[in-house]
């Protein structure tokens, strides 16, 4: 019998439903049984536990009744013990007060006796004993009744205060006595100073010591005042005077600060920095401002600034307006009418002719004295501040604040103002005025070899002096400003004017448009002399710049003026770089002048080549290449061997290409000009060779000509020129190969270490052209 799937499903569902109904019935029965059991257990628990709880409660009540008597007795005993404890505390406090009052009375009496007998050490000990008594006891009614005596009838506080005051006066007087110049005794002075902390008189002791220190500085100040009244010499007088003052201050602080701190810097009390230095700062500020005031007046600072601001640089303006004066390079023509005297010695003397002086310009020598003194003052002040930072871990700004001095009234503020408002503008004026005078004094020496001029020696001696003086002021801000402005001035008023001299001469004489003759020869002579002089000036200037940079960048030099230690990293406003590193970064900017000098030199060398040398090079090239042929048979080869035309023409014509330049130019300048001329000869020859036809004998002749040229040019210079012949040498290599497999020429050359300047296709194409294959 076959069953359908639907019937099977219905039967399965019916079975599941029946099973579910049976499960629900069992669960309902279990729940009913549990509810009945719970209801019965509550009644059973109540019947079982209640009697037991009642018995426990009864037992607790019985125990409480039995313990009430004992608890009362214990409470009574505790109260009595507490009363005894309080009574004992009162007795102990009374005994303490009695002992303290006895100690106070005895100490006051002993102190009075010690004062009478001038026994200061005992007096300090008795005073310290009296001061150990609690102030509550000292001011108590008990002390008021017990301490006074026939000899000391006043209340205890007044008696102790009076006796302590007398002792402090005696200590102060004795300390002053033993620190006075006439009765100086270091051991006794230290003895009396050490008694101040014993009697809890730290402030009074520091005040006494401050008075002593101020007296010393004041005494030194009297000597300084006498020197200020004297007529100062032209030397940096005030700078040395300033240095002497602050050097002696630093020595005093170095010697005395450890002693003061050992005696006073304890238990939170002030030491030398907090107690003595503010008073000293009052004196050094007064003395420093006095020196600056007299210096300002004697050196006529305000007048010099006014005159410098009013000065007009007419010589520089005149050179810019008319950079070329006919005949000037030969010592002819009109001389500039200005005071050409320089205030400093130069590396070699210039030879200017006399000229009527102008009264408008400030005295550069006077300005140099003023600037040197101000730099010395700034340097000494920076060194003193560095000493305070390193030894005392403080700065004058903090000391001024502790002394109650306004920031704008401090010595630092005055010096900063002088450096910013006087040193910088006057130094820049001095630099520009010196540049003007150096240009006016520019005296070429055409007889020297190489040809020289006074310009770079005078200028860079002056520049080194200015940079050294600026760095010696120990101010990073000033150094950065002066170096930046000086480099800008050198670029505009030295490099540009030197270039203007050369450009003006070329444009004025216009050699390319002149026909051959005496006039053209004179023009060529003047242009050549002018260009050589100023090209040498630029080259020597670049070398001097590098030398100045190397000397001033050395740590051994800069460490004299800038602190090499790292600043306190705890201060977020302070850079984590040392002053020395920052100074080196500033000095390194001087090196930016060298590329500008080299760039101008490169450009002007090209102009010299284009104006005077290129026409002669073209003539030599025409002579060398006009009948050049390497498609030679045996007869032509023999004639070429006998004539040696290329080498002969080169030797004959080269003397006219660079006549006298090798002796007259500096070696780097001659190398530049020589390189231009050599490139101008080799480039056309390389191009011509690439289009010539060669026979095997012609290839051999070409190799000989190339070797002759290379030997000739190598003999003309102490530096190598082989690299410039690399392409032609590769041509000779290709032409004279013995291997007939032309396809391997490039790879074979590369395997031999040849750095090809020809591509493989160029080698193959040229080989085909050369031999017509």
Automatic annotation (TrEMBL):
Keyword Nuclease included in the entry's annotation: no
List where in the cell it is found.
Golgi apparatus membrane
Coiled coil regions, renumbered to chain: none
Q: Which SMART domains match?
A: Cog4
Q: Which InterPro entries match?
A: COG4, COG4_C, COG4_M, COG4_N
Instruction: List, alphabetically, the Gene3D superfamilies matched.
Output: 1.20.58.1970
Q: Which GO terms describe its biological process?
A: protein transport
Record has Transport as a keyword:
yes
Q: Which UniProt keywords apply?
A: Golgi apparatus, Membrane, Protein transport, Transport
The COG4 transport protein middle alpha-helical bundle domain, residue ranges: 160-503
Which coarse location class describes where this protein primarily resides?
Golgi
GO cellular component: a single term? Golgi membrane
The similarity annotation says: Belongs to the COG4 family.
**Name assigned to this protein:** Conserved oligomeric Golgi complex subunit 4
Say which species the protein is native to: Malassezia japonica
């Amino acid at each position: 019998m076959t069953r359908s799937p639907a019937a099977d499903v219905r039967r399965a569902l019916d079975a599941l439903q029946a099973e579910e109904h049976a499960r629900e019935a069992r669960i309902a029965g279990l729940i009913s049984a549990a509810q009945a059991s719970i209801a019965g257990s509550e009644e059973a628990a109540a019947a079982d536990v209640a009697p037991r709880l009642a018995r426990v409660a009864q037992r607790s009540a019985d125990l409480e009744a039995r313990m009430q008597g004992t608890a009362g007795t214990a409470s009574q005993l505790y109260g009595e013990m507490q009363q005894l404890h309080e009574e004992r505390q009162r007795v102990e406090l009374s005994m303490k007060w009695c002992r303290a009052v006895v100690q106070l009375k005895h100490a006051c009496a002993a102190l009075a006796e010690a004062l009478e007998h001038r026994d200061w050490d005992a007096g300090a000990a008795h005073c310290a004993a009296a001061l150990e008594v609690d102030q509550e006891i000292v001011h108590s009614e008990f002390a008021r009744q017990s301490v006074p005596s026939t000899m000391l009838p006043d209340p205890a506080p007044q008696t102790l205060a009076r006796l302590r005051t007398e002792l402090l006066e005696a200590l102060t007087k004795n300390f002053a006595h033993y620190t006075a110049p006439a009765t100086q005794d270091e051991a006794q002075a230290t003895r009396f100073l050490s008694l101040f902390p014993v009697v809890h008189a730290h402030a009074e002791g520091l005040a006494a010591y401050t008075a002593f220190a101020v007296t010393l500085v004041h005494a030194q100040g009297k000597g300084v005042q006498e020197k200020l009244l004297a007529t100062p010499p032209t030397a940096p007088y005030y700078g040395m005077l300033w240095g002497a003052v602050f050097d002696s201050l630093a020595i005093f602080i170095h010697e005395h600060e450890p002693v003061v701190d050992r005696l006073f810097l304890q238990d939170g009390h002030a030491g030398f920095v907090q107690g003595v230095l503010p008073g000293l700062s009052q004196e050094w500020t007064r003395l420093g401002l006095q020196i600056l005031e007299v210096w300002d007046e004697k050196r006529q600072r305000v007048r010099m600034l006014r005159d410098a601001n009013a000065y007009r640089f007419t010589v520089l303006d005149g050179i810019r307006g008319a950079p070329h004066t006919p005949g000037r390079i030969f010592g002819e023509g009109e001389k500039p009418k200005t005071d050409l005297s320089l205030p400093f010695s130069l590396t070699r003397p210039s030879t200017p002719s006399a000229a009527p002086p102008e009264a408008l310009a400030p005295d550069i020598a006077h300005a140099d004295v003023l600037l040197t003194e101000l730099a010395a003052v700034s340097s000494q002040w920076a060194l003193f501040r560095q000493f305070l930072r390193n030894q005392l871990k403080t700065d004058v700004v903090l000391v001024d604040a502790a002394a109650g001095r306004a920031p704008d009234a401090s010595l630092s503020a005055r010096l900063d103002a002088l450096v910013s408002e006087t040193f910088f503008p006057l130094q820049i004026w001095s630099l520009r005025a010196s540049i003007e005078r150096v240009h006016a004094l520019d005296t070429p020496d055409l007889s020297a070899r190489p040809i020289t001029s006074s310009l770079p020696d005078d200028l860079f001696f002056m520049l080194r002096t200015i940079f050294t003086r600026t760095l010696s002021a120990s101010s990073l801000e000033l150094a950065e400003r002066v170096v930046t402005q000086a480099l800008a001035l050198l670029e505009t008023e030295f490099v540009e004017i030197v270039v203007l001299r050369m450009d003006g001469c070329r444009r004025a004489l216009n050699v390319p448009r002149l026909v051959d003759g005496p006039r053209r020869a004179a023009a060529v002579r003047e242009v050549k002399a002018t260009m050589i002089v100023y090209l040498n000036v630029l080259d020597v200037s670049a070398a001097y710049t590098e030398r100045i940079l190397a000397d001033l960048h050395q740590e051994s030099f800069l460490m004299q003026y800038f602190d090499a230690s790292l600043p306190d990293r705890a201060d977020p406003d302070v850079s984590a770089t040392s002053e020395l590193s920052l100074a080196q970064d500033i000095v390194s900017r001087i090196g930016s002048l060298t590329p500008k000098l080299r760039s101008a030199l490169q450009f002007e060398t090209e102009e010299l080549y284009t104006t005077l040398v290129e026409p002669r090079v073209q003539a030599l090239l025409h002579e060398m290449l006009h009948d050049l042929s390497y498609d030679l048979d045996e007869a032509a080869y023999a004639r070429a061997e006998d004539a040696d035309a290329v080498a002969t023409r080169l030797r004959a014509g080269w003397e006219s290409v660079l006549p006298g330049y090798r002796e007259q130019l500096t070696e780097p300048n001659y190398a530049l000009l020589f390189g231009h001329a050599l490139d101008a000869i080799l480039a056309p020859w390389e191009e011509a060779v690439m289009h010539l036809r060669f026979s095997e004998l012609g290839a051999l002749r070409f190799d000989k000509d190339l070797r002759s040229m290379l030997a000739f040019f190598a003999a003309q210079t102490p530096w190598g020129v082989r690299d410039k012949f690399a392409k032609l040498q590769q041509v000779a290599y290709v032409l004279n190969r013995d291997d007939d497999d032309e396809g391997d020429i490039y790879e074979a050359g590369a395997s031999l270490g040849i750095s090809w300047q020809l591509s493989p296709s160029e080698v193959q194409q040229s080989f085909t052209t050369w031999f017509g294959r």
